[in-house]
Amino acid sequence: RATLLLSRCLLKMVKGNIIVPEDILSFCCNGLQGSTSPRRAGEPEEREEAPGAMASPLASPSAYRNPTEVQMSQLVLPCHTNHRGELSTGQLLKWIDTAACLSAERHAGCPCVTASMDDIYFEHTISVGQVVNIRAKVNRAFNSSMEVGIQVSYEDLCSGKHCSICKAYATFVAQGPLGSKVRLEPLAPQTEEEKIEYSIAAERRRMRLVHKDTLKDLLTSSSQETEQETRDGSGAVPAGRTRVESVELVLPPHANHQGNTFGGQIMAWMENVATIAASRLCHAHPTLRAIEMFHFRGPSQVGDRLVLKAIVNNAFKNRCVPGLGDPLPTLPTALSPSSPLPGSMEVGVCAEAYGQEMSISRRHINSAFMTFVVLDQEGHPRSLPLLAPEPGDGERRYREASARKKIRLDRKYVVSCKQTEVPLSVPWDHSNKVYLSYNNVSALKMLVAKANWTLAREKEKVRMYTLEEDRFLSFRIEMSVRVAAGRAFSLLSNLRRRHEWDSHYVRADLVQKVDDDDMIYHVVSQKLRNENKPQDFVILASRRKPCSKGDPYVVAFRSVTLPTHPATAEFTRGETLCSGFCIWPESEEMSKVAYYNQAMPGYLNYVTTNVVGLSSDICSTFEACEKFLLKNKEDLISRLQDF
């Protein structure tokens, strides 16, 4: 009506030869198009929000935002907490799973289900009245599955304090009609953080696939006798007393729009029975510190009955792993609150589903292992009663719990640490081989994904870049060669042939073939200028073929220690933290070869001399590398020999 009146007034003014001000005319015209007010001078134009974007009063309209990112903020109310006024871990797991699922569905464009969840270490408890902030985004999409990274923190509204709670990685599978798999579109990472997560996601996926084999190898290589902490059983609590069984009926609020039970809801029910089992051992209120990596074996639907069973598998009294050799070495991160500390216990939980009340056949939905502690008033773990395992399966679970404790320490120590917190030469053994290989490759991939590389020097085909970061000076040597990427990968991953093009290498002897992708070498190099004897290294070489199109071939090197090759007076023992090759195919017969190295203090003078142009040694070495690749690209013997 207002628009109609304005139009009539405008018509009368035109008929009366009255000059109409431009701003009034513009206002009337915009009003006819549905506008409610004219834009004033200096006001920003309205922007159309990108599909899937979330409006934020704090975000700049032009700021980049990952289209798969989901943010969730939940105020912790009394109904979410336990008797201590702390947020129930089960409730937190439900929120984590929901946020991650929403992120996965943003990318997939169809319903998604939880396939697995990596280790979760809970660093702090959350109190009533505080806010839980969850941020989830898809790190990488594979064929029909995708990895979602989740960061959880809490916010104290009174003090403004923010604190990290945990970081998790979940795998989701996209489902089409009738449960069919959906082929996912690949992601295109934009920021440095996204590129790092995208690259390392392939390594995490590889580690998940070999998780079971790692446990089997550790149990096989260890002593067959289970060395319990008590032999006479005096004062020990029979494990049978901690056994818990509970049933839940899956109702519509517990399921998604497809009728499948939320993974987070199942995890919450499992956490509930696990807490009861732990309480029966310690006769106190335990705190959940960690959840072992687990996989969902199959779905459950509305109307299913879920039977949840829990029992304490082992109660740990010290950092020695019973029946698995020597005590673990003192590790800098093993004393963090989230590690399986003295006074911890492992509870095993399983979930089974059946459809009718009298049904005999049950479907295995999930199994998980949770680590609890009992804290005193100062927040330190209390001692726990001894546990007497049940004969047969109880002995097996007791022993497997010890092996998992060893693996958890290795995984958290090697995988979860920042690169600067890991000692250069980590002791290598069969139990941590998967995680050292992961750390080796992921450290190189993180270096590759850095965004602030600066071109320092260029000589013919060879380009030298530097990266100054914290206490490290890293360099990258890059060149294009007329050799197929796979062929260059095969030649450069064989350290026994490196002396043919790198004059710094005297020899490299293969010490141990871990598997097809990992080798350990003893390397002898030339004398340094200020040394009177040559250097030697014990090097873990890990190589990876591309996981998908666009990925490079990777050959990563890092120092490890082996009992069979200790430091000797004959050599000066050297160490390398992170170095290696990345090779990108440019065509069928062309590839881009890049060498990366985080320079250690002993090599800084050598590197900086080359950077400023006072020496051409590095460039000359890589010119020799190109000649080596060209000379051997048709070598049939090398073609058949990977290492």
Architecture overview:
It catalyses: butanoyl-CoA + H2O = butanoate + CoA + H(+). It comes from Erithacus rubecula (European robin). Keywords: Fatty acid metabolism, Hydrolase, Lipid metabolism, Repeat, Serine esterase. This protein has helices at 2-15, 22-32, 89-108, 192-209, 211-221, 263-282, 393-415, 433-448, 485-492, 604-611, 617-632, 636-640, and strands at residues 70-75, 112-117, 120-121, 131-141, 145-155, 162-174, 237-238, 244-249, 287-291, 294-295, 305-315, 344-354, 363-373, 387-388, 426-427, 454-459, 462-469, 472-481, 505-513, 518-527, 534-544, 553-561, 572-573, 579-585, 591-599. It is α+β, with helices and mostly antiparallel strands. It contains twelve helices and 25 strands. The protein folds into three domains: 67-190, Thiol Ester Dehydrase, Chain A (Roll); 237-320 and 340-419, Hotdog Thioesterase (Thiol Ester Dehydrase, Chain A, Roll); 421-632, START domain (Alpha-D-Glucose-1,6-Bisphosphate, Chain A, domain 4, 2-Layer Sandwich), CATH 3.30.530.20. 26% of the residues lie in helices and 28% in strands.
